[in-house]
Structure formats: C-alpha cells, structure tokens
TrEMBL record:
Protein name as catalogued: ComEC/Rec2-related protein domain-containing protein
Domain ComEC/Rec2-related protein: 231-509
Source organism (scientific name): Candidatus Azambacteria bacterium RIFCSPHIGHO2_02_46_12
Domain DUF4131 residue range list: 29-184
Topology of this chain in the membrane: Multi-pass membrane protein
Length: 518
C-alpha cells in the first residue's frame, strides 16, 4: 500500500474516532484498553503490514477519543476559572470584552463576550470565590438599543445560565462547538467601561464592512440592497422574512451565507464563468483563489469562514490539477486538522459538515457526471458561442447536482426541509451570480469615491438582483416546491450514503474512469 493511502487511512481513522466519541462516552480505563490493543497488534504482528496498519488506526482512533473528551471540559480551555462554573448561581456582575461582531435581529442583539471578571450579587451556595478572575465566553442577548460594538469593554449585570436544550434544537451543544457554555438573556443593565479593545485589524475590517453595507443601502432600494449585502459579505439581517422564506423554499440559501457550501459552489461557478471568457486555466485558478481570499478577509477571517475557504480552495485545486486522489488526501487531512483543534465541529457544526461533503461531492461526482454527459448530439448543431455557453450551463448544473447529492441528508437533518425545485433554481440563478458580485462590488467601491456615479453603476446590478429575486419568488410559489421532513432518521442517512457510494462506483465504471488510482 502506498504512503498516500496509509496517510489517508490514518486521517480517516481520526475522523471516525471523533465521530464515535461524539456519540458514545467511554471510561478512561476502556480507552486505555483500546490503546493497549493497538500497541499489541503492532508489536505482536509487526511482520504483517495490514495488521500493523490496523493497530496504528486503532491508536489514532483512541487519541481521537481522548482529544474529544479533553476539549469537552471547560476547565481545559483556559487557565482561569471557567465562567461556566458560575452558571445558575443567581445574579452576577460580569466584566468582559465584546469578542465578535454583534449579531442584530429584529428585536434584539446578541453579543459574544469574553469574560475576565465576575462578582456574585447574592449569597449563593458555592465553594467558588464570590469575586474572581475568570476565562471563557458567554452569549448575551440584549435589547436592540443602546448598541455596543466589537472591542467594547462592558459590565453586564444579569443571571448567568446554562444554555437550554429545546425539543427540536440542542442550543447547548450548538454553542459548545464554539467553546461557549454560558448565556445571559436580557440583563438588568449593560455599562460601557471602555472601547477600542480587541484586535486592531478586525476593528478596521468591521468598520470597512459596515461602511460597505451603508453604501449598498444608499445606491440600491430594498430588497435588492439587503440581498447584495448578503451575497457579498454574508450580512442577512436586513433581508425581509418573506424573501428569506422564498430562498429556503427554492433551496438557494447557500448563495447568501458565507459558508463552505457557499464558497465551494460559488468558486466553481466563478471558475466556469472565467472559463467561458477563455482565460487560461492558471489564470482562472488564481483569480478565483484571490476572490475566495478577499471575501474571507472581508468577513473578518472568522474561524468558520477560514475553514470554508480552505475547503473551497482544495476543491478548486482539484479542478486545476485533475489529481483527485492527492486532493482527497489534502481534504481529509484538512478536516482532521480542524477536528484536532475543535472536535465538536463534526457533530454540531452544520457548516463544517456541508463544507466537507460538498467538497467531496464536487471532487468525485462532478467529473464522473461530466464524463457521462460529455458528448451530446444537440451540442454539435450549435454555434461556437452557443456551444460554449451551453457547456458552462451544463457544468453549473452538474456542479449543483453533485454538491446537493453529497449534502442532502445533512440539509434535511439540520433544516427539516427538502427543496424539490432547488436544481432548477440553481441553474437559473448561479450563472448570473459572478456578474452580480462583480458589478455589485464595483458599484459599492464607486460609492466610496463618487456617489452619483455609484448609483448609475448600481442600475446594472439592480437588473441582475431583480432577476434573481424574481426567479426565487416565482419558483417558491410552485406547489410542492419543498417538503418539510421532521426527525429525519439517522439510519436513513447511513443507507443513503451507502447507496450514493455504490452509485458513484457504478457511474465511474460506466464513465470509464477506473484507470488510475481511486
């Protein structure tokens, strides 16, 4: 077996170990037994390479179990007393710094606060000091006004609680994936102590992002303005609820969310558009990669966006190099590395799941389907320009089908919805997205220099945005455009992926792609 395959198996063993450890808890003694089993297989059967490899896989899986357990305990995340130790002890005064961009909703704002000090207000029964330095982050849900910004140091007086678990949503686990174990809902008051803290570069990025959004609001009417803001910088708060529901029904929400699924598909569509312009393959690769990096920076290079950018870039690399096996190794290694730093992503982060699966779908299924549909008699009758346009539209359609086939169970499980109209919606909308983003960015950039000229340029992007909204709203009205599926059984997902893998091998054989490594 080649070194590349051994490396792939070890990375995969770590991912499997992380997955199993998120589902079942085992005592340390049993974990030690698994570790000893791996060492036993290596030392006793050291001449049998397959058993030795199995032993190493067992050891790696045991390490994954340990890593999951270690990072699931708040006390291992910070040298200070975890702020979550004070959960459910009544009212407290907490001092901390707003550690991320505030998330504004229709009636409230959520602040992510990195706590530094706490003082209990009452005589709670606890062995903890009533006043202490602490570590860790909390989510504070407060009234919309007054507003506070990233880097503000604030004092919060309220009840620190353990995040709740709802019947249809485990909010506690959702926050735990980001190492957040405490919440405060509508505190008595918030007092600003200082401002201008936090990372300087992030403050400048958020300032530019806010100004960028203000310019868009000045050059375009609604809902086109909020749609463009979501498309360019992932800011969806201002999108009207009825339009947001239409996006969900049509299955195109991914284009307005800065996620791995979004970045991966947009990167492929942008590459197809640049290919239509007859740019060279290296030029297409570098322009698309620079676009990914630009939007990653524009969103503040948050961890979730960086992960998405890595996944999207690897898929782009696979398209450029045409070496599926090597890029698969890189993709699986990237996933394993991300899980080493945050094991909770695998089970609780839908963005990570969608990123990884969409990338695999595009790396494996898109080339297979492209080979199967490579030659069509109708294409021979088209003019060169029409043939090229048809080829790119077909590529976008196959990209959409490949990605959605790979993520379908995850979408249903997390969002309780199956969009039947999604393939058609994506084919009608995605070809226009690169031009929408290009003219949208140019128009907004002009707004920083000369607003009248920006408004003239915005008339072009308004046409694209209006067309896309018209398609989304029109398709969302179709009967049975989407189906609601609640409590999607896990076993169905397992059977689906087993069938998908079998179908992949069958299609690969039919397409004649079995030459070379799989």
């Amino acid at each position: 077996m080649s070194k590349a395959k051994i490396f792939l198996l070890l990375c995969f063993s770590f991912i499997v170990g992380i997955g199993l450890s998120s589902l079942i808890k085992i005592p340390p003694s049993f974990l030690g037994g698994i570790l000893i089993l791996g060492i036993f297989l290596i030392s006793v059967f050291w001449k049998n390479k397959k058993i030795v490899l199995l032993g190493f896989c067992v050891i790696v899986a045991a390490v994954a179990f340990w890593r999951q357990d270690f990072l699931s305990k708040p006390e291992n995340l910070s040298p200070e007393i975890p702020i979550s130790s004070y959960n459910d002890l009544g009212e407290a005064s907490i001092i901390g710094i707003i550690d991320n961009e505030p998330e504004a909703g229709p009636a409230a704002v959520k602040y992510e606060v990195r706590a530094s000090k706490i003082k209990l207000a009452g005589n709670a029964e606890t062995n903890l000091p009533a006043q202490a330095g602490v570590g860790g982050r909390i989510i504070v849900t407060a009234r919309k006004y007054p507003r506070y910004q990233y880097g503000d140091e604030i004092e919060i007086v309220g009840k620190l609680k353990t995040p709740p678990k709802f019947d249809d949503f485990d909010y506690r686990a959702f926050l735990a994936k980001d190492d957040i174990f405490s919440v405060i809902a509508y505190p008595k008051y918030i007092n600003q102590i200082s401002f201008g803290n936090g990372k300087i570069y992030y403050r400048y990025i958020l300032s530019f992002k806010n100004k960028f959004e203000e310019v868009i609001a000045q050059i375009l009417p609604e809902p086109q303005a909020s749609f463009l803001s979501a498309l360019l910088i992932g800011s969806r708060q201002a999108i009207p609820p009825d339009l947001m529901e239409a996006f969900n029904t049509a299955g195109v929400t991914h284009i307005i969310a800065i996620s791995g699924y979004n970045i991966t598909i947009i990167a492929f569509v942008l590459a197809a558009f640049l290919g239509f312009l007859r740019l060279s393959r290296p030029m297409i690769f570098w322009l698309t990669l620079l676009t990914i990096l630009f939007f990653t920076a524009l969103t503040g290079a948050q961890a979730s966006v960086v992960r998405a950018a890595i996944m999207g870039s690897l898929v782009l690399l696979a398209s450029k190099e045409g070496r599926i096996y090597q890029v698969t190794n890189a993709l699986v290694f990237a996933a394993a590395a991300m899980l080493w730093f945050n094991p909770k992503l695998l089970r609780w982060d839908a963005g990570f799941q969608l990123s990884f699966l969409a990338a695999l779908g595009l790396i494996y299924f898109q080339p297979i389907l492209a080979r199967i549909f490579m030659k069509q008699e109708m294409e021979e009758k088209l003019t060169p320009f029409a043939k090229r346009a048809f080829e790119k539209i077909k590529e976008i359609f196959l990209t959409t089908i490949s990605a959605q086939a790979a993520v379908l169970p995850v979408l249903i499980y997390n969002f309780d919805r199956l969009s039947l109209i999604s393939p058609l919606a994506n084919v009608l909308i995605l070809p226009a997205i690169p031009l929408t983003m290009f003219f949208g960015f140019i128009s907004a950039a002009l707004g920083f220099v000369f607003m009248p000229l920006a408004k003239i340029a915005a008339s072009v992007v308004w046409l694209f945005l209006s067309y896309e909204i018209w398609v989304v709203e029109g398709l969302a009205k179709f009967p049975y455009a989407s189906l609601e599926i609640f409590n999607f059984p896990f076993i169905f997902a397992v059977l689906y992926y087993a069938l998908l893998i079998w179908l992949g091998f069958w299609l690969k054989k039919r397409a004649g792609l079995f030459s070379g490594p799989v």
